[in-house]
Amino acid sequence: MDEILDILINDARTPAEDIAKMTKKPVAAVKKAIRKYEEDGTIVQYKAVVNPELAEGLSAPVRALIEVSIVPQKDVGFDHVAERIYSFAEVTSCYLVSGSYDLLLIVEGKSIQTVAEFVSSKLSSMENVRQTTTHFLLKKYKEEGKIFKQSARLKRLNISY
């Protein structure tokens, strides 16, 4: 992979000047490469990874991992069904995977009930969906390679008998 992309994947806030020093390339060439990556869709988004336990006033959505078994369609395979599924606003990520299921979705909602309603009324009722399994995310320990510091106020109490 390109050196510039490697640096941005690790820390998207790295200034072009620092990337130029690290790669021994001119700053103008680094800026041009980044602009090209943004325009051609190689760089899709810059994202902050936030620890919701430490972010005051942040109301984190309920997230669930949903395994989906589907019937592939003739001549288009999984792609057409996957496109219909990832078009729903509740679906934040959609992956074709190996194993017992075909697709792995990350779904967000305001509550467990809204995610459950999505699964029962929209996802499970689709023509080519055979089976789903939903796993609600209860706590983040690590995301995007970053380990989350745990909030002191959420420490468990010692229990003795």
What does this structure look like?
This protein has about 160 residues and is of the alpha+beta class. The chain has two domains: about 5-40; about 60-145, Lrp/AsnC effector binding domain/regulation of amino acid metabolism (RAM) domain (Alpha-Beta Plaits). The protein is about 30% helix and about 20% strand. The protein contains five helices and six strands, in the order αααβαββαβββ. The protein has a four-stranded antiparallel sheet. Strand 2 and strand 3 (about 105-110) form a beta hairpin. Helix 2 (about 15-25) crosses helix 3 (about 25-40). The N and C termini lie far apart (about 55 Å).
Concise structural overview:
With 161 residues, the protein is an alpha+beta fold. Helices cover 30% and strands 21% of the residues. The strands form 2 sheets. The chain has a 4-stranded antiparallel beta sheet with strand order 2-3-1-4.
Under the CATH scheme, which architecture of the largest domain would be assigned? 2-Layer Sandwich
- Write down the secondary-structure element order: HHHEHEEHEEE
Helical fraction equals 25-40%
CATH topology group of the largest domain: Alpha-Beta Plaits
* Radius of gyration, whole Å: 21 Å
Mean pLDDT: 89
